[in-house]
Amino acid sequence: MEEEIEGMRDTALEILFEAGVLRRCPIHEDSILSGSADIEAAYKLANYLFTKGSEEWGLPHIFQDRREMTDTIKEVYNFQCGGADGCGWCMKD
């Protein structure tokens, strides 16, 4: 069960990256930054991919329904606090 939840969170994070809502620091990949899009872009992308049944993403196999998917995206986004404006590691250098 915990592996399934972690898989859903990982997929939600990747959707947030793909939609441009969050991004990684190009130097420090563990540092998650805010992107140029808002969370609605992630919801739209996820719903498109869920409908399409994309083999690459496999969303219908990961999430039971769209609600679970969008709730997980929101949870991950909130956990990341929407991403930082700048990389803390880069600012130290």
Task: Give an overview in words.
There is one protein chain. This protein has 93 residues and is mostly helical. It has one domain: Orthogonal Bundle (Arc Repressor Mutant, subunit A). It has five helices and two strands, in the order αββαααα. The protein has helices spanning 2-18, 39-52, 59-62, 66-79, 88-92, and strands spanning 22-24, 32-34. A hairpin with a 7-residue loop joins β1 and β2 (32-34). The longest helix has 17 residues, at 2-18. The N and C termini lie far apart (41 Å).
Radius of gyration: 14 Å
Q: Output the strand order for the largest sheet.
A: 1-2
Largest sheet report: 2 strands, antiparallel
Characterize the overall form: elongated
Number of continuous helical runs? 5
Residue windows where pLDDT falls under 50 for at least 5 positions: none
Name the average pLDDT.
Answer: 90
Summarize this entry quickly.
By secondary structure, the protein is mainly alpha-helical.
